[in-house]
Amino acid sequence: MSRPVISATGLYTPPHSISNAELVTSFNAWADRWNGEHAEEIAAGTVQPKPHSSVEFIEKASGIRSRYVVDKDGVLDPKRMTPNIAERPNEEISILAEIAVKSAQEALAKAGREGKEIDAVICAASNMQRAYPAMAIEVQAALGAPGFAFDMNVACSSATFGIQTAADFVRAGHAKTVLMVNPEICSGHLNFTDRDSHFIFGDVATAVLVESDDRAKAGWSILGTHLKTQFSNNIRNNFGFLNRGDPEGAGKSDKLFVQEGRKVFKEVVPMVSQMILAEMDRLNIKSTELRRMWLHQANAGMNRLIAERVLGHEASEDESPTVLDTYANTSSAGSIIAFHKHSSDFKAGEKGLICSFGAGYSAGTVFVEKTA
Hints:
The chain has helices at residues 20-37, 39-44, 55-62, 72-76, 95-111, 135-143, 158-172, 261-283, 300-311, 324-327, 334-341, and strands at 4-12, 16-19, 66-69, 120-124, 148-152, 177-185, 203-212, 220-229, 235-236, 258-259, 290-295, 351-358, 362-370. It has a domain at 221-370: Thiolase/Chalcone synthase (Peroxisomal Thiolase, Chain A, domain 1), CATH 3.40.47. By secondary structure, it is of the alpha+beta class. Helix 8 runs parallel beside helix 9 (300-311). The chain contains 11 helices and 13 strands. The protein has a 9-stranded mixed beta sheet with strand order 5-4-6-7-1-8-13-12-11, sandwiched between helices. The protein starts with a strand and ends with a strand.
């Protein structure tokens, strides 16, 4: 049986970045505008005024300082507060497939592969721009890959679920080279007029190439993977084709990202910590052997506490690096960005953990070891 190896990763970063200061200025202008339009109701006490946001509030709540987006002007326009992404004709590559292809091309180049050598493509992401045809099939066509392709959505855990699926294909002999991409235009489903969440997400695309050990020249041997889901309403997005018949449906706040942040923190931290420790026990990996943890980039406080529970001490930046401050939460792509940017210093035999967690609840672990 072939052993799966992560042979390369790729990253596409949009050219536009929004700082907390820029975002706060836009949000506060929108809040002032809204409060002015509802001045009578506010004075009568029938509605509550919209409070201002602040840079200090955002950084304390999340650790985020900036985020990349595909459209900056639309997000920062107080009259719009949402990205302005033009719909493309069917004959033109879709924006989600386009950024996925860009990240995939970097991974393929690093591994010395061509599109025709890909046996399967998995598009694993939270934010699919359409139901069908699958984004993965469009990516497959753009890269000139044979074989098969499909989409999967497990919210912020999509990448680790996608890696295990790719690894299973390799183990079973169904594929030798599997491309797994995570295009995330999270700004499209974020409510930029909600003070409690307007700062959370950014846009990006990542790619992971999973190959059989007899084909991969070098990389990261996948030692073990584990997936877990547990139903919760604390992170939710109700947008879908079933509510498009409601003329008010697209404008309702629950058709965008909503979460009960405190409940998520309280429930997800112990679930993920226990899951990691149980998998380490199964794989006979001691905390002292874990060189680095590439955790899901959602909240700095959550990552700090999870890492401490796993390692037995407060993790250093080297042990648990963050990209949250500059990329914000990029859903499924977060842990892959951290891995992509903070793994080149590993030596053969050193072990690490890619871990993601999010809505569902869902969580996934991928333990890896650097090969020669």
